[in-house]
Design a protein that fits this description.
This protein is of the alpha+beta class and 143 residues long. The protein has helices spanning 50-62, 128-142; strands spanning 12-16, 18-19, 22-28, 37-38, 41-43, 68-77, 90-98, 110-116. The protein has a single domain, classed as Nucleoside Triphosphate Pyrophosphohydrolase (Alpha-Beta Complex). It has a four-stranded mixed β-sheet, covered by helices on one side. Strands 2, 3, 4 and 8 form a four-stranded antiparallel β-sheet that branches. Strand 3 (22-28) and strand 4 form a beta hairpin. One of its GO terms (molecular function) is hydrolase activity. It holds the Pfam family NUDIX.
Length: 143
């Protein structure tokens, strides 16, 4: 598993969960970006390792469990990001959930959960970074 350093630069985390070529997305129930679909995730707690935060956030928002994640990328949001405007750069570490188990249900601040294939995402408000990551991962499946 690729590790990223515990750093104040990592503000939040996301967990990418894939089953049968479909991605688990949550509908954000609160601002910012209320109503938009994104990978499950949220803020990292003080002193919490980013990978541990991704595992926790996945479970809290969806009930899906994983014991291991693999680092994919870090996305930076700022005031110019329309779907997730931030007053200062917000660093979101993105992880792939390895062997996730359980049925997904909306919990915590998720209003709903969806399993969507990349081609189905166009019918929803999906953040640009999520769509880009999903397209890349879907392409990797076909390679």
């Amino acid at each position: 598993m690729a590790q990223i350093p515990l750093s104040p630069d990592v503000d939040g985390v996301s967990a990418v969960c894939i089953r049968n070529e479909a991605f688990l997305l949550v509908e954000r129930g609160r601002e910012p970006s209320k109503g938009w679909l994104a990978f499950p995730g949220g803020r990292r707690e003080d002193g919490e390792a980013p990978d541990t935060a991704a595992i926790r956030e996945l479970f809290e928002e969806t009930g899906v469990r994983t014991t291991e994640v693999s680092y994919l990328d870090t996305v930076v949001f700022d005031y110019s990001t329309p779907e997730f405007p931030a007053s200062r750069p917000y660093h979101l570490a993105v992880f792939l959930a390895c062997d996730p188990v359980g049925d997904a249900v909306a919990a915590d601040d998720a209003a709903a959960v969806h399993w969507l294939k990349v081609e189905e995402m166009a019918a929803f408000d999906v953040t640009a970074s999520v769509l880009e990551m999903a397209r890349k991962l879907a392409q990797d499946f076909k390679s």
